[in-house]
From TrEMBL:
Naturally occurring in which organism (per UniProt): Marinicauda pacifica
Pfam family, one: LysR_substrate
Molecular function as annotated in GO: DNA-binding transcription factor activity; sequence-specific DNA binding
One biological process term in Gene Ontology: DNA-templated transcription
Superkingdom of source: Bacteria
Gene3D superfamilies: 3.40.190.290
Sections of the chain in a coiled coil: none
SUPFAM superfamilies in the record: Periplasmic binding protein-like II
InterPro entries listed in its UniProt record: LysR-type_TF_proteobact-type, LysR_subst-bd
UniProt protein name: LysR family transcriptional regulator
Family affiliation: Belongs to the LysR transcriptional regulatory family.
Chain ranges of the LysR substrate-binding domain: 3-104
Amino acid sequence: KAAGLLRVAAPVDFGAARLIEPVTAFRAKCPEVEIRLELADRMVDLVDEGYDLGVRIGHLTDSSLIAKRLAGACMTTLASPDYLGEHGATVHPDDLSRHLCIIDRNKPAPNQWRY
């Protein structure tokens, strides 16, 4: 019978969108397991910080960790119709250099946009 503390780390957006329901279902099946879910947009050190499970988005660097792919993910570039009306649409990724872009500096490579 499973019991004890399970510490899980995941990115905020992924955790909020994808983990709440499965964690709730797991808790219903295994009420003796306490789940401590930390949602943070930083690269936690799973071993040094004592986590049992971590969710990563992107490529896993060389590691002694055991990894399993959960799902695919893709990045999308978006703009409001008002913004595009004022600044013009993009045709090619190179066009982004003339736009006011919001980037997430918490990501491992915020200035690298891959298409």
